[in-house]
Design brief:
Shape: flat
CATH topology of the largest domain: Triger factor/SurA peptide-binding fold
Oligomer: single chain
Distance between the termini: 29 Å
CATH class of the largest domain: Mainly Alpha
Strand content: 15-25%
Number of helices: 16
């Protein structure tokens, strides 16, 4: 898996750094190697070297160049096999990654025009080249999957792998917990919103009268940007909340917006700078406050629910589904999961929880429910919760009983790597490979690459 990611990174990074400096370069491109029907150009290697040196400037240049060359040779073995096996990857399969790469490139360059000037290509051509690299990376992935499609990992395999690890080298696994929550949001209160708006109006008046936006952001903004004078940084329009983005893009430099409402609260915005499709803004965020009586009502309702649950008159899962406002957990009976859609885990170390959750969970025994408490949700808004400790694993040195999945994954990865290495060894023997004299000093080539 790590090798696959690295291969993709090399292909894409090479393109992003310098696809080609001029059209004339195409005519004099030097061939570094031929692998089956695939060609590796000198520029492919040098682009990878440039990026690797930027990240590891102390590594000798010859070592970097040979490492990049080895990765590209292996990648071309997989691509050549895909041709033989008629494995095809469509452009649609990489469109999401392509858009992400393009956005990152525009952000780094500052604008589409700057990116085009750097590459001496149009955005259409740049998208075409990056798409080609992404498709090739996906092809490598498809071939690797075909190599290991019949691979199975048995409990005996996991045990053998575990036994190869020296006991003093086993990692220490931090304490982890599984929890469930019931959450209530503060009631929608126009008076609270009006007070937040009025506070922002007063701040806006001070800015228009000549006071520093940055200083007032430090003093008043209720989010993490406050310590930086409210500065958000360069963003594409699609990276910001729509009301915020619409307001920012309508402003001229150094002007101050009217009040803008998002799910985070209320903002005033100032444009610092523009770079093509990017805008750098600062803002001041004020969230509607929750009045004491509103807090008391929410706490009282949660207290009533927990009493019913403790008396077995109401199941926790049913209460979460019927009353909780936390959408990610309520459909799972209150089970708390990671908000990252690509990593929907439900085991957490205590330091992954916010301060209020941490204090409540650390004092619970498995199966116990906390008293109601006030905290903040994942975007910083005030909410009210009770939490139940569903399960816990104390901090310990990794072992098969408690961490079987950890070692199962490690075993599977090790077996896949072994399968890839064996496949590469056999593929080298049966594939036409021509290496330029310039690279024949690389030590890894002695493992069968030179013929």
């Amino acid at each position: 898996m790590k090798r696959r990611k690295k291969l993709g990174f090399l292909m894409i990074a090479g393109l992003m750094l310098c696809i080609l400096s001029s059209n004339a370069q195409i005519l004099v491109e030097s061939v570094a190697a031929i692998v089956g029907n695939e060609v590796i150009y000198l520029s492919d290697i040098e682009n990878g070297v440039l990026d690797a040196r930027r990240k590891n400037p102390r590594v000798p240049i010859d070592e970097i160049r040979c490492g990049v060359f080895q990765e590209l040779l292996i990648a071309k073995l997989f691509v050549d096999q895909a041709r033989i096996d008629s494995i095809q990857v469509t452009d649609d399969m990489v469109e999401g990654d392509l858009n992400m790469q393009i956005n990152d490139a525009i952000r780094t360059a500052g604008s589409e025009k700057t990116l085009e000037d750097a590459f001496k290509k149009s955005m259409v051509e740049i998208r075409r080249d990056i798409r080609k690299a992404l498709v090739e990376n996906q092809v490598v992935s498809e071939v690797q999957n075909s190599i290991t499609k019949n691979l199975t990992t048995t409990p005996n395999d996991v045990k053998r792998y575990f036994n190869t690890i020296p006991k003093d080298s086993l990692p220490v696994i931090p304490a982890k917990v599984q929890i469930s929550i019931i959450q209530l949001d503060p009631p929608e209160n126009e008076e609270n919103k009006a007070e937040a708006r009025q506070k922002l109006l007063d701040i806006r008046s001070q800015i228009l009268a000549g006071k520093s936006f940055s200083v007032l952001a430090i003093l008043n903004s209720e989010d993490g940007s406050g310590i930086n004078g409210g500065e958000v940084g360069y963003k594409l329009k699609g990276e910001l909340e729509k009301p915020f983005a619409d307001a920012a893009w309508s402003l001229s430099k150094n002007t101050v917006s009217k009040i803008v409402e998002t799910k985070y609260g209320f903002h005033i915005i100032q444009v610092i700078d523009r770079k093509g499709d990017l805008v750098n803004t600062r803002h001041i965020l004020i969230r509607p406050k929750v009045k004491p009586e509103e807090s008391e009502r929410a706490i009282a309702k949660l207290d009533s629910l927990t009493r019913l649950i403790r008396k077995d008159s109401l199941k926790f899962e049913d209460a979460a589904f019927r009353f909780s406002s936390h959408m990610d957990s309520r459909i799972n009976g209150g089970k708390f999961v990671s908000t990252n859609p690509s990593d929907r885990i439900n085991w957490f170390s205590l330091d992954e929880l916010n301060q209020e959750m941490y204090k409540k969970v650390r004092d619970l025994k498995v199966g116990e429910i906390s008293e109601p408490f006030q905290t903040t949700d994942e975007i910083g808004n005030i909410v009210f919760r009770v939490v139940r400790l569903d399960d816990e694993i104390p901090a310990h040195r990794a072992n098969l009983k408690d961490d079987y999945q950890f070692f199962y994954n490690a075993t599977t990865m090790s077996e896949r790597q072994s399968s890839y290495q064996e496949w590469i060894r056999k593929k080298i023997e049966t594939t036409y490979i021509k290496i330029s004299d310039e690279f024949k000093s690389c030590k890894f080539l002695e493992a069968g690459w030179l013929k």
